[in-house]
């Protein structure tokens, strides 16, 4: 990096992670368009291989749409236990280089290597070594972005995908940002991008040309963030202690449901999924939320918070059932249900069962 005082941040992003694991484990899938998910009428693509992406298949795309775009698409069911195990291998590699690791998901993380634990000459060479080790130990490729802050490192990791890396040095950061479309910026979603376009903001240079007062007038509390990133500024540290705020699970039914018993069964299955995660993570929350999406895509949620944590599977099931019953009976078909637990408190699993139950 060009500055001795600059932080050295690497953003590592696995290439088509779920789909690549499936192609690694089943050689017959290699070189073919693969989607992780289910080809059911209400199915959704969880991940797509690069071969599938060439046809416009992306994660969160309805399965029927994905098959229209790519009739030869091969669906494979997700194996989250396998993905989690591989992610653990990758994070063990990260830990050889720094203690400052901030996971964003199973397949990407920020690393602050400013301290240079292994004495490698440059951040570029460090990223290259990490990627080589990931490939040697897992058979999977990763891309990396190297820069002096998190915003630029994440942008950079997309620049040479798949299986590449790109560095944004302190002397090029602000000018490089000006060349990029704002749709690539973290914090600028589709709605904000459309609003920016209506204000004549389509690239980083357009965003930088706007005053802070202008941005505050049109974007409120997000103005400071937009003003900073337009200049390549991001002071957020890599935070290895960032706590997960919630854990949830949801399912889309094969058909819109009206029968209360079937709807409750769906909710209880999601509650069981969430409880399994809580037990593994040792995280127990005080707030339970049930989400309902109707056939017309209207979404409603019902939540309940109480002084002590939800400390057993039975308590979570009971709470979830009570919440879903608050919207039953229904004359309008329900398409999707979900359960989320939040307001976590870390507890020893041995003592958790002794705490008061929800309700």
UniProtKB/TrEMBL annotation:
<comment type="function">
    <text>Poorly processive, error-prone DNA polymerase involved in untargeted mutagenesis. Copies undamaged DNA at stalled replication forks, which arise in vivo from mismatched or misaligned primer ends. These misaligned primers can be extended by PolIV. Exhibits no 3'-5' exonuclease (proofreading) activity. May be involved in translesional synthesis, in conjunction with the beta clamp from PolIII.</text>
</comment>
<dbReference type="InterPro" id="IPR017961">
    <property type="entry name" value="DNA_pol_Y-fam_little_finger"/>
</dbReference>
<feature type="site" description="Substrate discrimination">
    <location>
        <position position="18"/>
    </location>
</feature>
<dbReference type="Pfam" id="PF00817">
    <property type="entry name" value="IMS"/>
</dbReference>
<protein>
    <recommendedName>
        <fullName>DNA polymerase IV</fullName>
        <ecNumber>2.7.7.7</ecNumber>
    </recommendedName>
</protein>
<keyword id="KW-0235">DNA replication</keyword>
<keyword id="KW-0239">DNA-directed DNA polymerase</keyword>
<dbReference type="InterPro" id="IPR024728">
    <property type="entry name" value="PolY_HhH_motif"/>
</dbReference>
<dbReference type="InterPro" id="IPR050116">
    <property type="entry name" value="DNA_polymerase-Y"/>
</dbReference>
<feature type="domain" description="UmuC">
    <location>
        <begin position="9"/>
        <end position="189"/>
    </location>
</feature>
<keyword id="KW-0227">DNA damage</keyword>
<keyword id="KW-0808">Transferase</keyword>
<keyword id="KW-0515">Mutator protein</keyword>
<dbReference type="InterPro" id="IPR022880">
    <property type="entry name" value="DNApol_IV"/>
</dbReference>
<keyword id="KW-0548">Nucleotidyltransferase</keyword>
<comment type="subunit">
    <text>Monomer.</text>
</comment>
<dbReference type="Pfam" id="PF11799">
    <property type="entry name" value="IMS_C"/>
</dbReference>
<keyword id="KW-0479">Metal-binding</keyword>
<dbReference type="InterPro" id="IPR036775">
    <property type="entry name" value="DNA_pol_Y-fam_lit_finger_sf"/>
</dbReference>
<dbReference type="InterPro" id="IPR043128">
    <property type="entry name" value="Rev_trsase/Diguanyl_cyclase"/>
</dbReference>
<dbReference type="InterPro" id="IPR001126">
    <property type="entry name" value="UmuC"/>
</dbReference>
<feature type="binding site">
    <location>
        <position position="13"/>
    </location>
    <ligand>
        <name>Mg(2+)</name>
    </ligand>
</feature>
<dbReference type="InterPro" id="IPR043502">
    <property type="entry name" value="DNA/RNA_pol_sf"/>
</dbReference>
<comment type="similarity">
    <text>Belongs to the DNA polymerase type-Y family.</text>
</comment>
<keyword id="KW-0963">Cytoplasm</keyword>
<dbReference type="Pfam" id="PF11798">
    <property type="entry name" value="IMS_HHH"/>
</dbReference>
<feature type="binding site">
    <location>
        <position position="107"/>
    </location>
    <ligand>
        <name>Mg(2+)</name>
    </ligand>
</feature>
<feature type="active site">
    <location>
        <position position="108"/>
    </location>
</feature>
<keyword id="KW-0238">DNA-binding</keyword>
<keyword id="KW-0234">DNA repair</keyword>
<dbReference type="GO" id="GO:0003887">
    <property type="term" value="F:DNA-directed DNA polymerase activity"/>
</dbReference>
<keyword id="KW-0460">Magnesium</keyword>
